[in-house]
Each structure stands twice: as structure tokens, then as C-alpha cells.
Amino acid sequence: MDKRPCRLVRVVLRVAAASEPVVGDQEMDLLGNIDRLIAVAGVVVNAGGFLFLGAQFIAYRRQQKFDALTQIHTEVGSGNFREALRCLLNSSPESLLEPEDVVVQQHIAIATGLYDLLGLRVRHGVLPTDALLESEWKILLPLWDQLRPYVEAERLRRNIPQYKEHFEWLVHQAEKYARGRGYQHPAIATSPRPVGRAPNTAPPATADVDASGHG
Question: Model-level pTM greater than 0.90?
């Protein structure tokens, strides 16, 4: 912070004080008051600087999150991802448990991989939770019902309990988001959930759901 204005004020006030017909203790009191006034002015200037830096930081964080969301919508709106969703949402959970079709395997990898990555980003604060769930919750809930048997089987087969854990975590956040807005989805209500987790529902997703808006 540039202290030259404060120094200039000090000099001017001291010159003005020197021209006053005061002596002894009165002069010392006057100079002391001047010093206190300058100190207060310096605090005000510094506070203004901190407020400016704070505003700049907030603007930077908003832009950063906006850029991240733009990237997400680009990814979920891609042709490959939309095709993967159509395939998975039109399949039965049993048919996805051990798919032999290479194309179906690729669709599973695309969908679970992207949502697992998005869940990780949200958990680390890189992406805003509500902004992401606002566009994705209607897909996350029915998609998890389709892929949950596959994910659980893969955890056992690979002996990795944390396999796609960020995907599942994001689904649970979507459940809370939907429940808080009073939505219901019959498929969610009948699927097994962890103890203590209330069933929550959302409008059923179909093959022609727009992957970018999901509504």
C-alpha cells in the first residue's frame, strides 16, 4: 500500500502545528493527536485496499466456477455422452450387470467415469454443488438405479469398495436435492437404500431426455 499520501498529511499537519502559538505540554498533545489522526487515516486506507482485494477474489472465484460449469455442460452435452445415457436408461439393470456388448461396456464407462469425476470435483469445492445438481439430478437418480448392481458387483470383483464412490456420493446429494424440492420418482422409492435414508423420487428419465438440461 502506498504510504506517500499519509506522509504528506503528516508533514502538512506538522507544519500547521508548528505555526500555532502553543508550547510545552500543549504542543506535545497536539502532535500526539496528529499522529493518532494519521494512524486512523492509514487504517481506513488499508481497509479500503483489503475490501478491493476481497471483491477481486470473489469475482475470480465466480468466474472460475462459471468456467467449470461451462466445461461440464459441454461434456454432458457431447454426442457420446448423450448416446451412452440413451442406451443405459433404456436397458434393464440386469442386462447391464455383466454386459457382453463392447458398445454397452463403453457406455457404462463413459457415464460412470464422468459422474465419478464430477462428484470428486464437487467434494473438493471445485464445482458448486447446487448449480451442478440443478441440471443433473433428474439423470443421476434413475441412472444410479440402472447401474447400482453393476457398480456393486465391480466393487466385489475388483475388491475395491471405493470403486465409483464419488458417483454414488453425488447420487446421494441428488437425492437430498430432489427431496428438498418435493419431487418424487417411483423407481427410487422401490430401490434398496442404506438404512436411515428416506426414499426420494424424481420425474422418470427417458431416452429422449436432453443430457444438457435433463428436463
Answer: no
